[in-house]
Amino acid sequence: MKREKPADAFQSVYFITDWWDGPKSGFADFNGTVHCFERVFDKVNDDWSDLYLLRPVSTEEYSLQIESYKLFLDWINDKSSTRPHPSSDKDNKRYHEVEQLLAEFEHQFYIEKYIGEFISISNNDKEYGNKINDFNYKVQWNRE
Q: Running DSSP on this structure, what letter comes out for residue 2?
């Protein structure tokens, strides 16, 4: 999935799929193409490092991930709902179908290792947002 190269050193982060004291995994541009990124755990320091493993993604995987993320956001944004998280909701058949299809991509090899410097830009003109969806993220990938 080729994208136009950004003019600055920071590239687009399309969405973040896991978060712990910063982005753990998600999808972002790397050298003009969409890549999956996965944060590396530092066993020596017993903490998440600034290193990320990167791998290119297919259009199929990216489309499925977008669908999964939209189903998750629908659940987040439905303030009146008492439904459980989509992964726990046995009635949410489509979410489970998509997750099963995505599992087929989990064993692909990561081909690059970079340090990721993420910056956030508020979506709502507030200095600080209160949740991950209040921000757009950019990332600069630097060699280890």
A: B
Helices (H), 17-118: 59-77, 93-103
Token reading at 18: 């896991």
Nearest of 99, 116, 102 to residue 28 by alpha carbon: 116
Alpha-carbon distance of 23 to 38, in angstroms, equals 9
Contacts of 70 (CB under 8 A, 6+ apart): none
Q: How far apart are CA 122 and CA 126, in angstroms?
A: 6
CA dist 26 and 19 (Å) reads: 9
**Predicted model pTM:** 0.75
pLDDT at 5: 44
Alpha-carbon distance of 46 to 69, in angstroms, equals 29
Compute the distance between CA of residue 56 and CA of residue 68 in angstroms, rounded to an integer. 18
* Listed residue (48, 10, 46, 51) closest to 137, CA to CA: 10
Task: Give me the numbers of helices (H) and strands (E) for the chain, helices first please.
Answer: 2, 6
pLDDT by residue (tens digit) across 94-140?
A: 988 999 999 888 778 788 889 899 988 765 555 444 444 556 889 99
